[in-house]
From TrEMBL:
Keywords: Cytoplasm, Cytoskeleton, Microtubule. This is Gamma tubulin complex component C-terminal domain-containing protein. Belongs to the TUBGCP family. It comes from Danaus plexippus plexippus. InterPro entries: GCP_C (IPR040457), GCP_C_sf (IPR042241). One of its GO terms (molecular function) is gamma-tubulin binding. One of its GO terms (cellular component) is microtubule.
Length: 222
């Protein structure tokens, strides 16, 4: 259950980042619209600003015509998250049923002892062992399912991050960086070392900026 909780937290963090980005990306455009409305600007100007705000919002929500390719990759990620929810339900139901069975067995033992009978017969013991064996197999199967899910989910997330990083919209490139700010997915997939990603661009810009400053300082010393 602890690993399930960790994976759920991982998925929720990603969903939170996506939701936050969809709002932040259009925040400036909405602010401009509100400011223009407060100044009682011309209706055509307000309509243009409103259209721009909606356009920016749709881009960051990945429902814009320029983000159609991203929609399928995002859909894959969201489908995996829904699959995890279904998995948790199955796991919880199975564990709850086993715990309930064991509670009932303890109550049965106590009741028999109170009547002066044997708490456990050989038939009861054999049945209990069989039930426990079935439950252990259930847990083993769910563990295998979870391993498959984790690989599939992280594969889809990695693909989404890569596609975001290579998108022409700079704000979506920054979103890719935010989704993997700790390089967690990057460490697990060589594709994210692609030199066109936002992070590489930023590092290149930082390097160029440092070199430019160094050249300026050198020129001044002369």
């Amino acid at each position: 259950m602890r690993r399930v909780s960790c994976l759920r937290a991982e998925a929720l963090r990603l969903c939170g980042a996506l939701q936050e980005a969809s709002c932040e990306g259009a925040e400036t455009a909405w602010a401009e619209l509100l400011a223009a409305a407060a100044e009682r600007r011309h209706l055509d100007t307000l309509l243009a600003l409103h259209h721009r705000a909606l356009d920016r919002h749709s881009i960051h929500a990945m429902i814009h015509h320029t983000t159609q390719e991203l929609q399928s990759y995002l859909g894959n990620v969201l489908n995996e998250i829904l699959a995890l929810r279904s998995f948790e339900t199955t796991l919880h139901t199975g564990i709850s049923a086993e715990l309930e069975r064991r509670d009932q067995l303890r109550e049965l033992k106590a009741e028999r002892i109170s009547r002066g009978e044997y708490a456990f017969t050989s038939a009861d013991e054999a049945l209990d062992k069989e039930k426990r064996k079935i439950f252990q197999q259930f847990l083993a199967n769910r563990k295998a399912d979870l391993n498959v899910w984790a690989r599939s989910y992280r594969g889809h997330v990695t693909t989404l991050i890569l596609k975001l990083a290579l998108h022409t919209e700079v704000s979506l490139q920054t979103l890719a960086f935010r989704l993997d700010y700790s390089d967690f997915y990057k460490r697990g997939d060589a594709k994210l070392h692609e030199p066109l990603t936002y992070q590489h661009k930023r590092l290149s810009e930082i390097g160029l900026h440092a070199a430019r400053n160094k050249l300026i300082d050198h020129s001044r010393k002369k």
